[in-house]
Amino acid sequence: MLQQTLAAGFSSGMTVLQPASADYVPDVVNLLLKAARQFRASDIHLVPTEHSLRMQWRIDGVLHSVAAFDGDLKSRMVARLKVMAGLLTYRTDVPQEGRISTAGIDGEVRVTTFPTLFGEKAAIRLFAESGQFQLLQELNLPSDVEQLLSRFLRQTSGVILLTGPSGSGKTTTVYACLRELVRMFGDARGLMSLEDPIEVVVPGVTQSQVRPNVGFDLATGLKSMMRQDPDVIMVGEIRDPETAESAFQAALTGHLVITTFHAGSSVEAVTRLLDMGIEPYLLRSTLQVVVCQRLLRKACSACGATEQAADHNEPSSATWKNSGKETDKTSDRGAHAESCSLCGGLRYHGRFVTAEVLDPAVPDVGRGLMERMDSKMLQQMAVSGGMATLRDRCEQAVRDGLTYADEVFRVLGMR
Length: 415
Known about the structure:
By secondary structure, this protein is an alpha/beta fold.
């Protein structure tokens, strides 16, 4: 199984390190960063327990236990990460976050720490390596979504809203949008961002990080940023009514605003903004497009999963009622995958992105916004206007053999 492979791979790397060496802790931290990257992990969790520090890697959206560190390594490893990220090692009672930019570590690395009962928990986000997922066409978005985003990025005002839950790839997409703007316009447009924190450095964009402890929050920064004469403003995330209001006012005054927002669907994003106090007329006049995306695990091709997915995993009503439970055919397929060196018996390897697009310019959708219709009614109007929902796209991916119905259930839940 994959979990055993991960544990064995990391353990073999540990055997060559010298515990008596003064560089032992830095070497362990460098090893876990390198090994996690090698196994395609997107996140590393270092979770303190009463007597040890448990390490988990998130691969293709799923957590796997890899190792546990005992003794004084429990605190020394987190302290080492804090040094690398420029955090305060003596503050173990408050959350902290920072970036690692040490030579020899490829790709952007973000570190956050959080105080718990048994010590500090550290979460490490490993962004794509340099050169990966740089531009929109490299994300492999559905072709219609990519074309729409490319078109709206050429607009001179309005709001482009990228939504989805945590871990759905919003950050990767928003940075790809910024690079796309740099590629299209070069120095002809002023590009500025306000982030919390800056996760990826994008040449050609003037990036700023908020500092709430000195009163420089998202809403305050946005108001000041508009006096800097930007053409495009990227806001890392809308988190509160004041930031939402400032972002939409910036779009109303002639700026193109690109931002992210946590929501389960494109329609839910709009109705949540209405609930936050954004006036319907402001949404209708400034909102260019809402893109809601998800990442799904790919069916492994090496163990024959792709060929079997379309035949054995048709998303019928019975499949959804079973809530992803194993069928006899699924069990046979799982047994066949056990010997696969690529997926380690998981039947999945890698992920792909899919998305739905809500276009406020569709007459019925625009009318629904102005009338403050609930999400269910607005969803019906959007579908009637031609919107392919996330569920539609995911079920089509199952029919095309790209993934399995149990993965759609894991990501989207029941119908």
